[in-house]
Amino acid sequence: MTIFLSVREAIHSLAANKLRSGLTILGIVIGVGAVISLMAIGRGATSSVTNSIEGIGTNLLFVQAGSGPGTSFTRVRNFKSLTMADAEALANPLAAPAVKAVAPILSSRFTVTYGSQTTDTTVTGVTAAYQTVRNLELSEGSFISAENNSGRSLVAVIGSETADTLFGTTTNLVGQVIRISGQQYHIIGVLKSKGGTSSTSEDAIVLIPLTTAQTRLIRRMSSNSVDSIYVEATSAETVNDAVAQVTSIMAIRHNIKAGGTNDFNVRTQAEMLSTATSITGVLTIFLGGIAGISLVVGGIGIMNIMLVSVTERTKEIGLRKAIGARRRDILAQFLAESILLGLAGGIIGILAAWGITEIVRLIAEANASTINPQIGMDTILLATLFSMGVGLIFGLYPANRAATLQPVEALRFE
User: Most confidently modeled of 53-67, 118-132, 393-407?
Assistant: First the structure.
């Protein structure tokens, strides 16, 4: 029997039991749809996190208080917080020639109000260098200047999401007044949208002068303290040099002896990107593995229906073999049926996954999230081959059972 005849016979047999075949295919549809959609959502999340980190700026280092993973502040003798003096030392071109710009920040969450509208968002004290280091662009107005910091001005630059929440628009907002912790701040600029996940949106922020934050709004260990320091290297090639120079300067300033434990840590943008990508990659594989279980369940459904089919068609098998059908002809016929069930389920599952990812994308857009599920051709190909493989593997035993039936015993079957 040729492959064409085997396929034609398989289609005819499956069509004779439409409901049963449809329910069997449904198991594969659910499995394939779940695998593809979860992998696509995982890839979208990975891309969103990656773009968010890359959007922070290029050639960036992050200096933060603390001794790094696994060591608490209490284990660091003579712990010191980061200060403006640290930032000024890092900005010295003679001591750190690989450093292009330095931007200390101080941030906390506050309720920001305009009239009857309120939003709970991050308020960050920054210097003028912050705009360059973070690659921020304004849709209108101007950024916080050195004069704003020297005068401890009550001015603010707001993100597009914050603007939309408070004012319902992102235009013509310069000169408007918002209130933070009972104090009035005049808006001098609105940032262009940068995006981000719903929980870490780059647009749901309020920026004020760092000196204003230190003296009027955010209290730390001292009035000169900052939470972290952004350091931009002169180029991608000088990032390692910048790390060494920054580490050396900070160690001297914080009196860290040779071999001692630093009370600060310096991380590069590449390290953060690698960590985030690794975490989201593991989660994507984990979700895909869970969804893959449903494919196995669908395969068991195929085996079950094929075993039932073999039992129901025992006389037919005996008759075929009695008139000359070979063992491989019977084997090919039943394998063709199981593979067709898997293939049909795979194709429908791909269409279902596309619909699911579109729904997720629309929900993400409605919630101002940048997660955009990405269905790759490799995922589609893998799911299709896997669904056919499931049909082949789980159909092998029933097909072999049918092929090994003795004609005399099959014809006598009641």
Answer: 118-132
